[in-house]
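Build the 3D complex.
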Amino acid sequence: MKADDCALKVKSLSLTFANGLKIFDRIDFSVDDGERVAIIGRNGAGKSTLLRASLGMFPQSKSEGEWLYGEPMQNISGRKRRQLLRQVGFVHQRHNLVPRATALTNVVHGAIVRYRPSIRVWNQALAPGYLREEAMDLLERVGLADRALNRASELSGGQSQRVAIARALMQRPRLVIADEPVASLDPVAGEEIMELFSRLVAQQDATLIFVSHDLSHAVRYADRILGVRDGRIDLDCSADAKSIDELASIYGDEDDD
Amino acid sequence: MTRPPARLHAFNPPGFAFAVVGLALIITAFNGIDFDLYTIIEGGPRLTRLLGQMWPLNFEALPRLLNSLWITFLMAICGTTLGIAVSLPLVLFAARNLTPHPYIRFVVRAFIALCRTVPDLIWALIFVIVVGLGPVAGALAIMMDSIGFLGKFFSEASEEQDPGPQEAVKAMGGSRLDVAMSVVLPSAMPAFTSDALFAMEKAVRASVILGLVGAGGIGIELKVAIDLFKYETAALIILLIFSLVVSVEQVSNRLRAKIIGGD
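Done.
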């Protein structure tokens, strides 16, 4: 497979921490454009670390190459790197919004690399009209149009995560990466937001990679599942190839159902 | 029942030596300045005489003094404003979470420390030579003092902000400036405002003294009144200064309570 066909491709990725702890040893994987991939594994298996390392977020990681849509991610300038990352929308486990900024401003921030000079996207009040409309439209799609001028600190956990999703989509990403996006929410809100999230990502024809410890989410919202265990990817199959019970016996947390 | 340990359970030679040296230093200090309780008691009547000479207050010069006081206040505002204007951009280099390189951070923090360690009176003397007598020299001296204070506190406020949102903007591809302006500045705004108000209070107190070296404001009036033994006028000036400092502190305390309590 040529690197250019892939949204993300990693060749022989190793990561060893300064204390000698070996996290990954020569991992290879790639994600096709338009795929929806779930990364599963027990607590501490290194799911999130794998995602971050493949985007070069650990200076100490080593690999024979990391490509984002065919562009190498290694040995590039900070500026080039920022340009590449612009194509990637992140949704973090904690929503990571600016608490004192309004929901609308937080969504407008998503255009921070797309729009120059970026001074106009530091705050919604300065933003050009079309960006405000776009941000408002996204807030409407996540069901929070009426909270546009509420500060992020005034929103509930679920509402904040919706704003974070809108912010990620505001980047018009080709690839959306979500690190346990609903882990901090109660199961009902989590289900609802996972459903909304995967629908919006599909509407934008973006590729989706998400880390989840909820195996039912992995089976339902992904086409393909990667299982991480003992520093390697030891499962790579289509989402309908295994039952939840089969997956749970290997990747479920002991204390989980 | 277990018995309590001996009162002096462990003799610690370095600690003991330290205490001895400390005590010796304190004794030397009082001897060195010829500190003598008798002189102080003897001075008591002179203090009552001085207080007597200060009464009744002399209001003759009040209009001129109010004008000087007003200038003193304006000088403090200008100095603090300039200090804020210089300190804010310095945060981009002095705060650990925003600086482009640790060496740059070191250099900028050294500059900020220099502004802080040189006393405002010295800055005033320097600026009186540079720009001449008057309130501009005073405002510049206050600016340097404020940079020393605000540069440090703004940077610390910036470093205290939650790294999560900053990393989120970085991950989107935001630059250092984007992180500073879209995340750190709005998040740290209450802390910045509170620090700026403190600097303002400090500047008002300082601006009173700066007049003594010719850097404008009411300080020079106080010096002249005392040098000419016009204690009735001096007392009025002291009261005016006192009311200015106290009012500024009151207003600033209330604003600060509102800002910090508001979120």
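Chain B touches chain A through 20 residues (CB under 8 Å).
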